[in-house]
Batch of 4 targets.
Target 1
Amino acid sequence: MYIACAVLISGWIALTALNHLPVVSKWLGRLDVGRVLPKWSFFAPNPGMHDYILAFRTFSVEGGSSNWRNTELRDCRPRWASIWNPHRRESKALNDIVQTIRRNLDGDFDEKTIPLSTAYLMVLAYVNNQAAIVPGAQRIQFVLLQSTGHQDRALDVAFLSQIHPIAFTP
């Protein structure tokens, strides 16, 4: 069992390293249906131009929907945040997940298969935990909004999810 795990992890690390080579990356991208091979860019060859907002709404048994609610990502910036800021990981994770969902939509995934992707399921689990405490909520839908600009902020819908039943596991 130990050897099998070592071989599996070693293979994953090797494929991750190969995934950073442009020639191999396109070929591996077609084979990596579950998007389990990460790809990092340390010096931002494509810098972020947008901010993303994750919002959700709930549906009651009668079918009525609530207003859209922003998810609660911590946005506190203590004085030491430039040295150590573990809460920054939440917004970074959201940005990475949004980018993955957008890449999936541009790639091999379509409207029927995107709900089976890891990124989609991660967002669904996150908003499910926030929506599970809303009284009377039975179903949930989330939206990823893309904002541009600082003063004249424009919001565009980057992705709208399907409607899902809420799993009560806060």
Target 2
Amino acid sequence: MFGPELYDLFVRVKQSFDPSGVFNPGIKISDRPFTDHIDYVRLSKPCATCAKCNAVCPVYDVFQSEDMSSRGWFEIVTDKNYSYLNSKRVVEACLNCKSCRTACPAGVDVSQLILDRRAEHPNEMAGVIFRFHAQTALFETILKVSREVSADLGSASDAASARSSDEAVYASSQPRRQDCRLSL
């Protein structure tokens, strides 16, 4: 970051102020390169493993287990040895509430990753359903249309029940015909 010339200057300054190396040994100035401790595999993943998603995950609230949390699910579904059959319980536990996406500072959408993995379901019909569900924009549009249709049907049935109740009120307000037969 600073280059070898500037780093050598840092080493000389540190040795002049701390010849025995008591202050922060190996922290700022070290014999090892500062990149030795970096886990590049972890850094290549978008998840920062901060666990902010676990704080908002309703499944984690119930189970209090890392394998039943957003962060744990991310590790499971992005593992190179992932298999649906070996992680079925975990993948099917997600409620797809998208709370993890809103809480994640890196913007990782674990629920979408899980939907994509669910689409790999070995059961053909379930796979079709999960693949459809994974197409978020199309799925949301169909949900919106179905809500509008059910609202229209609900208002039509409310109108029909209002008509029948109006008819009942009208019938009760009419005078009843009395039997006019005379008995002899």
Target 3
Amino acid sequence: MASAQVPAICKNVQRRLAIGAAAYLSADFLAEPPSVSGARAKRLPMKISLSDAVQKATALVVFLFLSLQFQSCKDQGVSQTALVSLNHTDVSLKNTDTFRYPTVGGDEEGARITVQAKHYNVSEMRRNAETNWVAVYMYQPTTGYIGTDYAEIEIRTGSDGASSPTSIRTVAFRFVITN
């Protein structure tokens, strides 16, 4: 089982991009143009070469694109400090058997299939009265199938209902199906 702390780099990268863009789009481009003081102050036109304007506009477009790319770090619904682990499970079963893997039962906990098996009659998460409200991964191979199959599920725990999960465990199933 390999465990790794998910680095909280998204905010740091966004912060560095913002600082870099602000430095590149220097004060003479972003600052208020000079004005004449007095009763009727009016703005004086800023003098900037076309190549500088194009260069700075390009930098701004690149900054906006990159900041939108890093925005997806926030949208994944995962805590920036979530503990992530991967478990491999080897399963041997007959092509007439059904495999059950209980996961979590709490209201704020969840499980989902992230990689669907290819040779199945049943490959699903069930959470009902039959499973005592525990999310159970169910797998039954295609009738008559002999060979291997693969599926992955993701189990999310540690949420209080108002925050993202603090632990994400991926379980990879390697099925060997016999007659």
Target 4
Amino acid sequence: MNRLTLALAALLLASLTACNEPAAPAPAAPASPGAGLPPGHPPTSGMPAGTPKGPTAMPAVAPMPTDAAAGGVTGTVAETLNAPGYTYVRLTTATGEVWAAGPTTTVAVGQKVTAVRTNTMRNFESKTLGKTFATIEFAEQLLVDGAGTAAPAAAVAPAPAADPHGAPAAAPAGEVKVERAPGGKTVSEIWAGAGAMKGQKVKLQAKVVKASNGILGKNWWHVQDGTGAAGKDDDLVVTTLATAVVGDVVVLEGTVATDKDLGAGYKYAVIVEDAVLAK
């Protein structure tokens, strides 16, 4: 074998070896200033020496909700009024004066208040206060100078689990049994004939099984008389300015309404409105 042959063999072997070698790994990218930190954490580069790095550097603190984020309005209290279960405030805001109302809250003129998660109502009449509001924001909560209120017994626009107008727990069979009022209708008859009775006065005798007072200027009762099927047509919602407690048997006269939508998730297929106690 001559030298030329040996040289060619050596070159061929070198080329094969080079083809079988794995590619060199790409150099690692430099760590970003925020690597290893929780989302939203500021970068630690440029911080003084000895400053702790990583998640323990700045514990997360939930910020107070702003009026825009919470779907409400913020202002300085110019006037305050109280009604059973409610506090009304006239707020001076950057865009003008706004009336708002929420669960009973201790508040004084001059304090900053945020009405959280509001529902706008127009031409709202508060018979308790003897006042009609052209526009008012009913709030789920009033925050005074950044501090919250205690959970209300009955919120204006609560989550479904806390709905003061929601159906009461089913009564044990045979617990409610009330005689029909002379010339009146039963609960199930009102449900069955609501379409024909819409806008008309109706009389009924029934037992108050749930009462939520002072909501939107009215008292809201659930009444039953033992007729109808449970969870279907055995319970009737009544609005009134009269007073009663759970367990009272009352004779009522009110106006039948159907497909009533009060906003904030309150919809009623059948409701008796503005009822008064009858003899």
